[in-house]
Amino acid sequence: MIETNRNKSVSEGPLHGIKVIDFTIVMAGPMCTRALADAGADVIKIESPAGDIVRHRAPIRACGSTYFAAMNCGKRSIILDLTTEEGKSTARELIATADILVENFRPGVMQRLGLDYEQLRELNPRLIYCSISGFGQSGPLSQAAAYAPVIHASSGYDLAYMGYQSDSEKPPNNGIFLADVLGSAHGFAAVLLALFDRERTGLGQSIDLSLLDCVLGSLIYEVQSAQFPSDKPRQVYQPVRSSDGFVMVAAVTPKNMATLFDIVGYPEGKTDPRFSTVAAKEENWAALLQIIERWTILRPAAECESTFMAAGVPCSRYRTVAEAIKDPHIQERKVLEQIGENDPFFVVNQSYKLSRSKMIARSRVPALGEHTDEILKEISH
Q1: Nearest residue to 158 (alpha-carbon basis) of 171, 149, 169
Q2: What domains sit in the chain, N to C, each tagged with a CATH number?
Q3: pLDDT digit string, tens, across residues 230-263
Q4: How far is CA 330 from the centre of its chain?
Q5: Fewer Cβ neighbours under 10 Å: the N or C end of the chain?
Q6: Which CA distances in Å does 298 have to 240, 244, 265?
Q7: Model pLDDT for residues 172-194, shown as the tens digit of each residue
Q8: Are 264 and 291 in contact (CB under 8 A)?
């Protein structure tokens, strides 16, 4: 039940009092449940005796994997062997009093364990049961194994991305797992919707979340273009060279364009028919980039950025992640949170800030099975 005490401390978070049973591993599921923990929910991570495989992924420090910590801080960990009747029985005891369950096994695994929604809804009618999988719980591919790189390929994302590169001969390498990040955010939103609905109806429900659906949903222009293809090239934003690197300039509006032409010393661009309409600008995009680059290549990226931004033209120099996390803007907005008691490091907070409720990465990073005895005592009372 969501607490309605108006006087409770904001540090407890908007989901204080909500109990989450977390059957997730790797990234999409753990990031979803970490968001719930950031909001103050009591997230109990169910782990096998071997633990989540990400516990062994670099970077490794004295406290363990910081990669694991970034996705699992703020949770409690209990070891349950779900191959045994005792383990499954304990899981059911935990679920009986839970508000939310999140799992990201391949479809069918939880059913074989006797822990699928249809069986658990009888045990706990208020349970919100979120299943995150590569291809969803239904459809011809539902049983197929999938990780984010497979979804990037399957959804059309990789070939769409390749199509925007002028010099690519093969699809891009994968290192940033967009499908997992999108899946975690969509999962968090879906759980909150179901929680809101439960406040009205008193009933839980199941959530079927497909990473494929999430990525396809991000291809907004591409889905329309696939249905209504055109011979005209699409305007693609490209980096332009500076004297010491690259900058991205995105002058979208007519006002932006007029200001840009003044800055780069081409005021006649404001009446140049090549750039007078959206269609004309798209047809002459390469020429526009050349005009911009003739100016930027003579100046450092930082100067280009500050000049354009001061005039209201969207622009950024290219930063490494190491540079970005040290940026004064990031520091002032408290985008990063220091966690880890004896070996501190930073993780990224949620991307939104509530004016009254606290959403923050919790410092606790659970050791494998650290809270097993504590949690077992709670359900025995």
Answers
A1: 171
A2: 19-221+342-380 (3.40.50.10540), 239-322 (3.30.1540.10)
A3: 888 788 999 999 999 999 999 999 999 999 999 9
A4: 18
A5: C
A6: 11, 9, 13
A7: 999 999 999 999 999 999 999 99
A8: yes
